[in-house]
Amino acid sequence: MTTASHSKSKLLIAGFVAGASVLTAGCGSRNGGDDLKTTAYVARDVETLYREAKRRLDNGNAKLAAALFDEVERQHPYSPWARRAQLMSAFSYYVAQDYNQAVRSAQRFLSIHPGNKDAPYAYYLIALSYYEQISDVQRDQKITEQALTALQEVNRRFPTTQYAADARLKIDLVEDHLAGKEMEIGRHYERSGKWIAAQIRFQNVVDNYQTTSHAPEALYRLTETSLALGIPSEAVKYAAVLGANYPGNEWYQKAYELVQKHAPSATAS
């Protein structure tokens, strides 16, 4: 969504992957990595397989790396390497932009290791995988709602972690995005003369996204639609709320001028 937000996410992810390299330290090069067959289902020892998967990830072949990390677990399910390989697989799918598979892999890790020390990272990776798929406000926002739910889960479960700190920043961005979608639909209804339908959308922004950048306009639109519905007292109420919370905002000035022009008696009372 923003460059700063993405940069912080990358740093958090990089920290985890750097830790994953510890597992390969001291393995040496008993088997030349370049000589390995990299197709799946070829039996090989766990250290060699894990090291080759990590090498492929470092070289930018994330899709093949994910398949090889999956092989670590398949061929050596009871090895200490299998647990880390599960998360590295999820991360590799994320890097390959196969976000749905990244979510499935991370969720599988959590189902098997719910109390593991790397659980916060798994939850965070799920949230990022949804977050990366957020589309513009012209499209269906189901994935945006999934991202919001996943980010809130990270913050709820692990509030003191770096993952939660980044999640909170993203929650603000996602809520602003969802509010923007509500405003877009509300404006469409307003242009069509469907005043009540428009009010429902604008009221949703005021009620559920009041800290977003869209709240002042939502209050103005409620002022506007209340006048269109012939309820000047409601229009004045919304304009007053707008003035109390955003006194210097351009939307308040517009709302003030609107009620002065169309509901002067209601303003006076």
Structure, explained:
By secondary structure, the chain is mainly α. It has a domain at 1-133: Tetratricopeptide repeat domain (Serine Threonine Protein Phosphatase 5, Tetratricopeptide repeat), CATH 1.25.40.10. Helices cover 72% and strands 0% of the residues. It is built from 13 helices and no strands. It has helices at 3-20, 46-58, 62-75, 80-95, 99-112, 119-131, 142-157, 162-191, 195-208, 215-228, 232-245, 250-262, 264-268. Helix 3 runs antiparallel to helix 4 (80-95) and helix 8 (162-191) packs parallel to helix 10. The chain is elongated. The protein starts with a helix and ends with a helix. Residues 22-40 have low confidence and may be disordered.
Topology:
Blueprint (H helix, E strand, L loop, with lengths): L2 H18 L25 H13 L3 H14 L4 H16 L3 H14 L6 H13 L10 H16 L4 H30 L3 H14 L6 H14 L3 H14 L4 H13 L1 H5 L1
Residue stretches low in confidence (pLDDT < 50, at least 5 long) are 22-40
Provide the β-strand percentage band: under 5%
- Give the number of helices: 13
Order of helices and strands: HHHHHHHHHHHHH
What is the annotated CATH architecture of the domain at 1-133? Alpha Horseshoe
Q: Which secondary-structure class do the elements indicate?
A: mainly alpha
**Termini Cα gap:** 46 Å
Share in helix: over 70%
Fold-level CATH name of the domain at 1-133: Serine Threonine Protein Phosphatase 5, Tetratricopeptide repeat
CATH class term of the domain at 1-133: Mainly Alpha
